[in-house]
Automatic annotation (TrEMBL):
This is MFS transporter. The chain crosses the membrane at residues 49-68, 75-93, 99-120, 132-156, 162-181, 202-221, 241-260, 267-289, 295-313, 320-339, 351-371, 383-405, 425-443. It comes from the Bacteria. Keywords: Membrane, Transmembrane, Transmembrane helix.
Length: 457
């Protein structure tokens, strides 16, 4: 490989990885869910009378990013620029009074994620498979690290939030600039692949996935009471029912969209969504357990993400991913049993070491599981639509449905930790992800052997 080729690979990898700083800065906010489906959240939930056009900016930006992946450096620039209000509001608090900025800002991180996925796909097709897989892992690893930075919602200690936001924003700007500067190097690389247009079925599935969350505008207490023939007051006493029904509608629509894209896309998106939704509640418990030791939390998250990337790029990625998901599920079963069904004891007893180990294990599991879906998708040139809109809408719908099992009882006061009382469901989703990874690998192996037998015959 020539020096010019090396520069194209290194420049692409470094610029895309640095660009993820915008995602970390945006998601490292307390009192928000972990592993938020940023792409699905770009769809508007309401239409303010005086900001209708502004409300469409995130949706239009995501749709454009899905179809303009050949220009991913400029997408990275656009995503970073759109994310700037998140950092600037920390320096100039008066900017928070402008509602248009709060509406536009969510457009930045999804566009950055899609640009990084596009870069990962090009690296894989260029022959830099390790770099491509690492970038795929870092798209979710960035959000996991952001969760460790945010800490617990009730924590009043300063964790260097302003400094982190400024550093991460500066890194993302540097990555965007580097992506544009290295365009010439990639153009001179004779082995750099040409972009492929999306096949119609993937285009249709991606558009459907991006638009699906807008269906929640039609789901409210009154309509649900009419459909279920129940009093409005009864539904109103259980607001989680509305969230769960809305999530179910989006989830069913997401499954249909994945089916339109084909079986390979369906199972890849289902694997990615299962492991993310399954890890949400235990990740919340792990992050809260080490809330008073922020440095340990950061180190655990970094170690877990790094371990997930290392095993994900190895030849035994499937075995490691399946093993990690199964071990994580068993740990959750043991944790639930050992705490008598009250996992918050990890927090109450300041069990920072078990919490840090759990955080590292879950980060490694999530990253490794998602990386295993990358090779086949990259070969087909569909990393962006599958691991972007399709996986995101399944996570969005799945997280909504999980609220139905996250309530302890009718008279229990809601808390941020409701979901951790049902770790069995999280463990079940992790086992589902393990089964999907193993099943896909087994089918690919049988198909390869069948093809070899046909050739030899």
């Amino acid at each position: 490989m020539s020096w010019g080729a090396d520069r194209s690979v290194v420049g692409t990898t470094l610029s895309a990885a640095l660009g993820l700083g915008a995602v970390v800065a945006f998601t490292a906010v307390r009192d928000t869910s972990i592993l938020r489906p940023l792409i699905a959240l770009a769809a508007p939930r309401a239409w303010p009378a005086d900001l209708v056009a502004v409300s469409l900016v995130p949706l239009v930006a995501v749709l454009a990013a899905v179809f303009l992946t050949r220009w991913w450096p400029w997408l990275l620039v656009a995503g970073v620029v759109l994310s700037l209000p998140t950092a600037l509001v920390h320096l100039f608090p008066d900017l928070g009074a402008h509602p248009s900025l709060s509406i536009i800002a969510p457009a930045g991180p999804p566009v950055v994620l899609l640009a990084v996925l596009a870069a990962a796909q090009e690296l894989w097709r260029r022959g830099a498979r390790t770099a491509g897989l690492v970038l795929i892992g870092l798209t979710v690893g960035a959000q996991l690290f952001a969760a460790s930075l945010a800490g617990a919602s009730w924590l009043m200690l300063a964790t260097g939030g302003l400094a982190w936001h400024l550093i991460l924003t500066a890194l993302s700007v540097a990555g965007a600039v580097l992506a544009v500067v290295t365009r010439g190097v990639r153009a001179r690389d004779p082995e750099w692949p040409e972009s492929r247009p999306l096949k119609p079925r993937f285009a249709a599935a991606a558009i459907m996935a991006v638009l699906l969350p807008m269906a929640l505008q039609a789901v409210d207490v009154v309509k649900i009471s009419e459909v279920l023939d129940l009093p409005v007051e009864s539904i109103g006493r259980h607001p989680d029912v509305v969230v769960a029904i809305g999530g179910l509608i989006v989830l069913v629509g997401g499954v249909i969209a994945c089916a339109i894209a084909g079986s390979r896309a369906f199972f890849a998106a289902a694997t990615s969504a299962s492991v993310q939704v399954g890890a949400m509640a235990p990740l919340l418990l792990a992050v809260y357990s080490v809330a008073f030791q922020p440095v340990l939390s950061w180190l655990a998250a970094v170690a877990g993400v790094a371990a997930g990337c290392v095993v994900g790029v190895s030849r035994r990625r499937v075995q490691f991913a399946v093993g990690g998901a199964v071990v994580s599920a068993l740990v959750l079963f043991i944790l639930d049993l050992g705490t008598g069904g009250v996992p918050e004891k990890l927090i109450d007893h300041n069990a920072v070491i078990p919490g840090a180990l759990l955080l590292a294990l879950l980060c490694a599991t999530v990253v490794a599981a998602i990386i295993t879906t990358g090779p086949r998708l990259a070969e087909d040139g569909v990393v962006v639509p599958v691991l972007g809109p399709l996986a995101s809408v399944l996570v969005f719908g799945g997280a909504g449905v999980m609220t139905a099992v996250g309530v302890r009882g009718q008279n229990a006061s809601p808390t941020r930790l409701e979901a951790v009382h049902h770790l069995g469901y999280s463990a079940g989703l992790l086992l589902l992800a393990a089964a999907l990874i193993a099943g896909i690998a087994a089918l690919e192996h049988l198909r390869a052997r069948s093809n070899q037998g046909a050739v030899s015959a």
